Amino acid sequence: MVSAPPRLEDSLVTGYKRLASDAPHRRIDFELRVLDVCFASLFGLVLLPVALLIALFVRATCGGPVLYRGQRVGRGGRFFAMLKFRTLRAGAEDRIGQYLGEELVRRTEAELTSLGRWLKATQLDEIPQLWNVLRGDMSFVGPRPIRPRFFSELATELPAYWQRLVVRPGLTGFAQVRRGYETSMAEKLAHDLEWIADRSVPLYLRTLFVTALRVLRQTFSP
Asked: In sequence order, which residues have a C-beta less than 8 Å from that of residue 67 and are 6 or more positions away?
C-alpha cells in the first residue's frame, strides 16, 4: 500500500525542525520556564472560578463545544492543540480559516457571538491557554502561535521565519504590545526576532506588565 505524500506544510515544518533543534539552548530558557510554571499555576488557581462560569455561559448561550482547539506550530516544529474558550459561531473555522492578517480580523469580527465579543475584548477567552503553558506547549511571552498552513507560506516568503521555532510561542509578545493586528507579518517577525535575541527575565516581566495594562485599558475604556 502506497502512503500519501506529506502535505507541504508538514514537510516544511519537518525541515525546519532540524534548524530549530540546532540552535543553542540558553540558560534563560530554563529561568523563563520556571516563571511560566509558577505564573500559570498561580493564575490558574485564581481564575478557576471565572473559567468555570465562562464555560457554563458559553455552553448555555452558544451550545456546542465550550473550547476551541486549534492546531498550531510550537517550539522545534512540534504541533499542539491551542486552547481557547469558543468565541465564534459554529462552523466559523471552515469559513475564515484560510485568511490571515487584516482580512482574518475583519471576518472574525463578523463571526463573533455576543458573549464571544466580550471574551475577546477582555482576553478572557485565552484562560485555557494556561494549560498550554503548564504543559510546555507555550510560554507567557513569545511569538504568537501560528497554523501549520500559514507557517509554510510565511517561511517561504520570509527566510528568517523559521527562527520563531527556537522558542515557545507565547500568550503575548513584543509584536502584540507594540503593534496592532494591522501590522505586516514582516514587521511582526522583526519584533519576534528581537525577543528571541534579547529574551530575559526583565523583558519577560515588562512585557507581561504592559500586556496587563493594555487589557485593562481595553476592558474599561468607554
From this structure: 83, 84, 85, 86, 128
Cβ neighbors of 101 (< 8 A, separation 6 or more) are 181, 182, 184, 185
Q: Is there a contact between 37 and 134 (Cβ–Cβ < 8 Å)?
A: yes
- What pTM was computed for the model? 0.82
Mean pLDDT of the chain: 82
Query: Predicted confidence band at 49 (pLDDT cuts at 50, 70, 90)?
Result: very high
Residue 44's nearest CA partner among 186, 140, 113 is 140
* 31 backbone dihedrals φ, ψ, rounded to 5°: -65, -40
Pull the grid cell for residue 189: 517577525
Phi then psi for residue 47, to 5 deg, are -90, 0
Backbone angles phi, psi at 88, to 5 degrees: -110, 160
In this model, does residue 181 exceed pLDDT 60? no
Q: What is the mean pLDDT of residues 172-198?
A: 83
What is the percent of the chain where pLDDT is above 70? 75
